[in-house]
């Protein structure tokens, strides 16, 4: 009887884990739920443009502006990254480091960094682990395929080198002392946190 109970308990536990994992990927951008102020920074690993593995939780040692963007193929993202470049010195003077995270594979990161002349760090979240951990991952194929057809699937796979078809909702987080201090996320990818708004948030949370 004890063995049977243990067997059923393990099935229930496994089922709960499956449900928990699947719930971290929203079916649409409007179904995402970004981490909020006070949440512990997730321990997720990403890849730098040099191919090094970087654990986001290590950024808790230095106040960090973490920007999630859709990819170098997105003109709205490129404009936003350029706007951040324009205020990088002010952010650094306040003690912040800047990282921009996308599903793009390393080669795409290099292309974006060079094309936009960015001198802050870009990280590849090609597996989507960070986007899921921050509650901003959604199934882009489900959302965009009805409008754009199969080409969106090919574009996503070419950019990330993966077949999960996930994208992050464009978001900005201020990370400090192992916690999320500030969170901005907007399912409307045409609307981004402005440079002035980010500076105000950075000043308020330094």
**Number of E-state strands:** 9
CATH superfamily of the domain at 33-131 and 170-194: Glutaredoxin
Compute the separation of the termini in Å.
Answer: 57 Å
Structural class: alpha+beta
Q: Could you give the order of strands across the largest sheet?
A: 2-1-5-4-3-8-9
Mind telling me the CATH class of the domain at 33-131 and 170-194?
Answer: Alpha Beta
Q: Compute the gyration radius: what is it?
A: 18 Å
Q: What is the ordering of alpha helices and beta strands?
A: HEEEHEHEHEHHEEEH
Q: Tell me, what's the shape?
A: globular
CATH topology of the domain at 33-131 and 170-194: Glutaredoxin
Task: Provide mean pLDDT, rounded.
Answer: 89
At CATH level 2, the architecture of the domain at 33-131 and 170-194 is 3-Layer(aba) Sandwich
Helix fraction by DSSP (H/I, runs of at least 4): 40-55%
Oligomer type:
single chain
Major beta sheet summary: 7 strands, mixed
Uncertain runs are: 1-23
Helical stretch count?
Answer: 7
Strand content: 15-25%
């Amino acid at each position: 009887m004890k063995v049977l109970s243990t067997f059923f308990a393990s099935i229930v536990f496994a089922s709960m884990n499956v449900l928990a994992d699947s719930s971290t990927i929203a079916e649409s951008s409007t179904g995402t739920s970004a981490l909020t102020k006070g949440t512990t920074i997730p321990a997720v690993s990403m890849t730098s443009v040099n191919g090094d593995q970087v654990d986001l939780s290590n950024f808790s040692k230095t106040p960090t502006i973490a920007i999630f963007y859709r990819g170098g193929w997105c003109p709205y993202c490129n404009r936003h990254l350029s706007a951040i470049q324009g205020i990088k010195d002010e952010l650094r003077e306040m003690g912040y480091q800047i990282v921009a995270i996308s599903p793009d594979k390393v080669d795409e990161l290099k292309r974006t960094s060079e094309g936009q002349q960015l001198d802050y760090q870009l990280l590849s979240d090609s597996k989507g682990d960070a986007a899921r951990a921050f509650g901003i991952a959604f199934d882009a194929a489900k959302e965009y395929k009805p409008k754009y057809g199969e080409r969106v699937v090919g574009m996503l796979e070419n950019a990330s080198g993966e077949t999960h078809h996930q994208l992050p909702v464009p978001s900005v987080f201020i990370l400090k002392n192992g916690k999320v201090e500030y969170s901005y996320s907007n399912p409307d990818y045409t609307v981004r946190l402005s440079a002035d708004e980010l500076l105000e948030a950075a000043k308020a949370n330094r």
